[in-house]
Design brief:
Layout lengths: L7 E6 L17 H5 L1 H10 L9 E5 L13 H17 L4 E7 L1 H9 L5 E7 L16 E7 L7 H13 L3 E7 L10 H16 L6 H7 L11 E3 L17
Parallel strand pairs: 1-2, 1-3, 3-4, 4-5, 5-6, 6-7
Helix pairs in contact: 2-6, 3-4
């Protein structure tokens, strides 16, 4: 059966540094990039073309520089260029979910105003208090953060979800208790949860009911109302085991 043109895509953005104008190192030396490989593999398995021949593209952003670099916002520039290229490859109707970690999550949030973007999943996101949120209006935004993260702030993430909701986004935060910034502790939970969220936002899978409820909260909701605990979502995993227990 002939494949149809892809109707959806996932664009993956790995982490980086606050500053650094040199290119990322190649291959396995680029640890932030290596960190996202299990997520890419899991997403490709979960979005394999079904019998109707539809396809979900999974692409990774290549950074020209290791760092964000202040007002230059180099990772944001690279994300927007990758979105433009994705539109040329797949067409202007392709629905895109951005998946980013740390600096990559910051770039994903900032790039979400691009017309192809439907939603953002941010892992241990870097959310400086002054970053804008108006570009998130009309988007689904789910941010996942460990309560023990010492590199980026879970409190700043919770604040951003509330600010974005007031700006017209549909937002939710999920806390991974006992995790870490590198997503090594409880790695299977990070991988499975992320796959569930991305496929759910794409419409190729189902979101846990509490996530759907949080995304539907009114703009005036308190930050804690849209904050969920991963371990309490286990009951929503169903027979397919969408959310692991470790």
């Amino acid at each position: 059966m002939d494949r149809r043109p892809p109707s959806a895509a996932v664009l993956v953005l790995h982490g980086g540094h606050e500053n650094g104008t040199e290119p990322p190192p190649p291959g396995l030396l680029n640890l932030p990039g290596v960190r996202m490989r299990p997520f890419v593999r899991a997403l490709r398995r979960a979005t394999r073309a079904p019998e109707d021949g539809t396809e979900v593209l999974v692409r990774q952003v290549r950074y020209a520089h290791r760092g964000w670099n202040g007002a230059r916002a180099d990772a944001l520039r690279d994300a927007l260029a990758a979105l433009d290229a994705l539109g040329e490859e797949a067409g202007d109707d392709v629905r895109v979910i951005l998946l980013g970690h740390s600096m990559g999550a910051r770039a994903a949030l900032r790039a979400a105003g691009h017309p192809l973007v439907r939603g953002v999943v941010g892992l241990a996101p870097w959310c400086p208090p002054g970053d804008p949120v108006t570009q998130l209006a009309g988007r689904d935004v789910v941010l996942v953060h460990s309560n023990r993260d010492r590199m980026t702030s879970p409190q700043a993430t919770q604040s951003l979800t509330a600010r974005a909701r007031r700006a017209g986004a549909r937002t939710c935060m999920i806390t991974v208790r006992g995790g870490d910034h590198a997503m090594i502790r409880r790695a299977p939970a990070w991988h499975r949860l992320t796959t569930t969220l991305v496929t759910g936002l794409l419409g190729t899978g189902s979101l846990p009911e509490p996530v759907t409820t949080a995304l539907g909260l009114p703009p005036t909701a308190e930050p804690t109302e849209g904050t969920l605990d991963l371990d309490r979502l286990r009951a929503e995993r169903g027979p397919a085991g969408l959310l692991p227990s470790s």
